[in-house]
Design brief:
Blueprint lengths: L3 E4 L2 E3 L5 E7 L9 E6 L6 E6 L5 E2 L8 E6 L4 E6 L8 E7 L9 E5 L2
Parallel strand pairs: 2-10
Antiparallel strand pairs: 1-3, 3-8, 4-5, 4-9, 5-6, 7-8, 9-10
């Protein structure tokens, strides 16, 4: 069973940047697409980004142009670079192996002055 560990969350001011990491316990990114999701208190889980094995990426309009997903297969790590952060980006961010229930414990991102 693959295990995922997210990291990189924290407190950031509006307009700031943060890079999240999702490390896998073994090689999976070369054989599976990866998703990033987020969940804010009292809100439903929201899709944030995805990256396929071929490197194609997808984003919802709410983060397009501000967030960038990438991966390093050699390090078994997927990244989420978040720029121009807004208070509404505050949430717990999770990575997930697409098509499975495998996800990490999440990392909290708080955007506030």
């Amino acid at each position: 069973q693959v295990q995922l560990v997210e990291s990189g969350g924290g407190l950031v001011q509006p307009g700031g940047s943060r890079r999240l990491s999702c490390a896998a316990s073994r090689s999976v990114f070369s054989i599976a697409a990866m998703n990033w999701y987020r969940q804010a208190p009292g809100k439903q889980q929201e899709f944030v980004a995805s990256i396929t094995t071929g490197g194609s990426t997808n984003y919802p309009d709410s983060v397009k142009g501000r967030f960038t997903v990438s991966r390093d297969n050699a390090k078994n790590t997927v990244y989420l670079q978040m720029n121009s952060l807004k208070p509404e980006d505050t949430a717990v961010y999770y990575c997930n192996v697409r098509g499975t229930a495998i996800r990490g414990q999440g990392t909290q991102v708080t955007v506030s002055s």
